[in-house]
Design a protein that fits this description.
- 45% of the residues lie in helices and 14% in strands.
- It has an eight-stranded mixed β-sheet with strand order 3-2-1-4-5-6-7-8, with helices on both faces.
- It folds into two domains: 190 residues, Rossmann fold, CATH 3.40.50; 85 residues, N-(1-d-carboxylethyl)-l-norvaline Dehydrogenase, domain 2 (Orthogonal Bundle), CATH 1.10.1040.
- The relative contact order is 0.10.
- It is globular and about 55 Å long.
- The chain contains eleven helices and eight strands.
- It starts with 16 loop residues before the first strand and ends in a 16-residue tail after the last helix.
- Bound molecules: 3-hydroxybutanoyl-coenzyme A.
Length: 294
């Protein structure tokens, strides 16, 4: 059944100011998404240079849009005017929702969630954009598991419309609805899913990407596989191009999580995927991955 406008999710919590933790590709893109949608955004990084990098990322992105005739200087000034960078998490005390996009490491995330729980005002929603760790594990270190939720954005966040909204058994229905309404307000399409490895998209996407690596190990050239998929499946990128965008370290972490959950040998990470990660060929972000960008 197609939902009617009456079924559209509503903002059950007042959301005016959004906090973002992290300064990497996903964090920068997420800051941009909210600022472009008119929200004031407070983002926190581990140093002045990293914090400044987020602003530069957004400036460049807006400059490109202006050059393509898709934006203008006034819009750019307005978006940049909504940004507040900080190096201390205490800057998040008054935000209505925090979206974290820091390292994909459970100890690091749990330390952050325990800290956000202390810092953020009562009622503030704590969201994670993790793609490989259980949301439940982030919730269990807080005193407000009902306010903890997954908001899984895709890379590049300003472009990709989908957000997987991931609820745990403890997430409040009001929090789930508010986050889905917030996605709509930022021009995103929300799909709801439960807290299981890979959620929906990665559970289907990564076995394919991993199989592409295994296929290349049988002697097929990477470029040939990329071309075949783009031609036949009409995907915007071939598997190796996409792995290099996502990051091979992130991809390996996701694949290992899928293996842990589904326990079938087919999910075993491809040897070459482990090898490129060990060699530091992490993808576009390091200038080299399956393909060379230098
Ligand atoms: N930031 C902002 N805008 C961007 C951008 C970025 N990083 N990259 C591209 N764009 C914009 C361009 O400005 C352009 O906008 P316009 O249409 O308004 O002019 C539009 O996106 C298209 O860009 P281009 O014409 O330069 O290039 P392409 O047509 O090749 O599109 C792409 C680029 C959108 C990245 C496309 O290649 C694509 O869709 N790739 C697949 C991406 C994908 O599947 N991501 C999901 C990965 S899985 C994941 O993230 C899950 C995680 O858990 C691992």
């Amino acid at each position: 059944e197609t939902p009617s406008a009456d079924d559209a999710p509503q903002l059950r919590h007042d959301i005016r100011t959004v906090g973002v933790v992290g300064t990497g590709t996903m964090a920068s893109g997420i800051v941009q998404v909210f600022a472009q949608a008119g929200y004031d955004v407070v983002y926190v990084g581990r140093g002045e240079d990293k914090v400044a990098g987020v602003r530069t990322f957004i400036e460049k992105s807006l400059d490109k849009a202006i050059a393509r005739g898709k934006s203008d200087e006034a819009t750019k000034a307005a978006v940049l005017g909504r940004l507040t960078g900080a190096t201390e998490r205490s800057a998040l005390a008054e935000v209505d929702i925090v979206v974290e996009a820091i390292a994909e490491d459970l100890d690091i995330k749990q330390e952050l969630f325990a800290d956000l729980d202390r810092i953020c005002k009562p009622g503030a929603i704590l969201a994670t954009t993790t793609s490989s760790l259980p949301i439940t594990s982030c919730a269990e270190v807080t005193s407000r598991p009902e306010a903890v939720i997954g908001m899984h954005f895709f890379n590049p966040a300003p472009v990709m419309k989908l957000v997987e909204v991931v609820t745990t058994v403890q997430t409040g229905a009001d929090v789930d609805e508010t986050v889905r309404a917030l996605c709509a307000k930022t021009g995103k399409v929300a799909v709801s899913c439960g807290d299981r490895a890979g959620f929906i998209v990665n559970a289907l996407l990564f076995p394919y990407l991993n199989d592409a690596v295994k296929l290349s190990e049988s002697g097929l050239e990477l470029g040939v596989i990329d071309t075949a998929i783009k031609e036949q499946a009409a995907y915007p990128m071939g598997p190796f191009e996409l792995l290099d965008v996502v990051g091979n370290d992130v991809s390996l972490a996701i694949q290992e999580e899928l293996l842990r959950e589904f326990r079938q040998p087919g999910f075993t990470p491809a040897h070459t995927l482990k090898q490129v990660v060990a060699e530091g060929k992490l993808g576009r972000k390091t200038g080299q991955g399956f393909h060379d960008y230098r």
